[in-house]
């Protein structure tokens, strides 16, 4: 797909600023923020009320972080943020890793259309991974004409500029880039939690697992400079953040392509030095790149949480090869043994796919064997989804639904059993929990997260949110605990 922008028709209700936009980023975006502010102000005066905007996120933590960037711009240009989709501007930040994510977007777009029919000035935007697929753009252009703005993953930093373009035309504005090597720093963000934050340390993926669409829609690996990351975290800590989650599709290959290469382990060492920061998490680690240096840094760290997400995908070496994962069942198990020996209290979680082309029930049994031997604290199990353009989609030996279902159910049962056993091991201990929110079901309780990512609910009030407090883990309820705060 080429760089493209449809700005054919200009609606003269709005008077564009006359001076020229700067070429340099992020100055250019701040120019467009100012421009959008005028548009929002005029529209708000016309309606005699503030304008509301909703950012709706589908998919992973990377998308959640991108949505905070979108919300940051929306707030900066003068929208009041809301979670209600009956707003003046709604943006869907989409995911395409599995087809059900796509279907959910199409389903909800129908609802947005009915809202827009009632409210003519309403604007609808779509962005994120799904928009990097040419077939999706075609479908939206032909069947969802009411959408006002579409952009992809590579030009999210241009959101203010695209918003301004959207206000200046009645046509659908489309701007999709095939790739980028650009990382624009220092744009506004609106964080969901005051005390914890995700931080992108890299974008894209070079691994090309044969089932996965991510390398096609997120592009090649690009690492942020360590100075920029440290600076961002220092600023967040100054604002009250105590826990950060370093985000990348494969954090273990962080820094390899920088002008001055640096390892992920070294980045962690530097982040650890930041005064006032209490907890460090990261996601996701590819087993093939997990170094001894990283294990050492985790072991010695006072701040890195006792949790590692280590996607297995399959326990069958034959299937792993077809998936292009570049490790065998035995290598994965040996890696887990090594990690467990060094850091015995580490919780390990994983992702598993069932139904990859050519998979038989005996392969699922190999996966189940790994699940039993590792004893995951949690495992996210997915049914294989055929993604157009990936090598696996072209494989002829796609697995019949009934076989997939049988394997999936068999696996899920074991995953649940083993996870319960693991989580129960903490019963009777007292551990530190970071209090995240008031419990949704019972307002007299707060919900906290242990270093190993286990959730605990206990008596408390809003004053505790953002604090790290010791909690007695009284009763294990499967995947979570009911506890009591210690004085
Ligand atoms: N089908 C099913 N699951 C997938 N994942 C990635 N691609 C697919 C696919 N085509 C899963 C992997 C990955 C997680 C984020 O999503 O398990 O680790
Ligand atoms: Fe997809 Fe594999 Fe990259 Fe993860 S490592 S994003 S599964 S290609």
Structure, explained:
- By secondary structure, this protein is α/β, with parallel strands linked by helices.
- The chain is 35% helix and 20% strand.
- It contains 13 helices and 19 strands.
- The strands form five sheets. The protein has a six-stranded parallel sheet, sandwiched between helices. The chain has a five-stranded mixed beta barrel with strand order 15-16-17-19-18.
- Strand 16 (445-450) and strand 17 (455-459) form a beta hairpin.
- The chain is globular.
- The model is unreliable at 1-15 (pLDDT under 50).
- It binds 5'-deoxyadenosine and iron/sulfur cluster.
- Residues 97-98, 211-212, 311, 313, 351, 353, 382, 384-385, 387 line the site of 5'-deoxyadenosine.
- Its main location: cytoplasm.
- GO terms for molecular function: 4 iron, 4 sulfur cluster binding; metal ion binding; tRNA-2-methylthio-N(6)-dimethylallyladenosine(37) synthase activity.
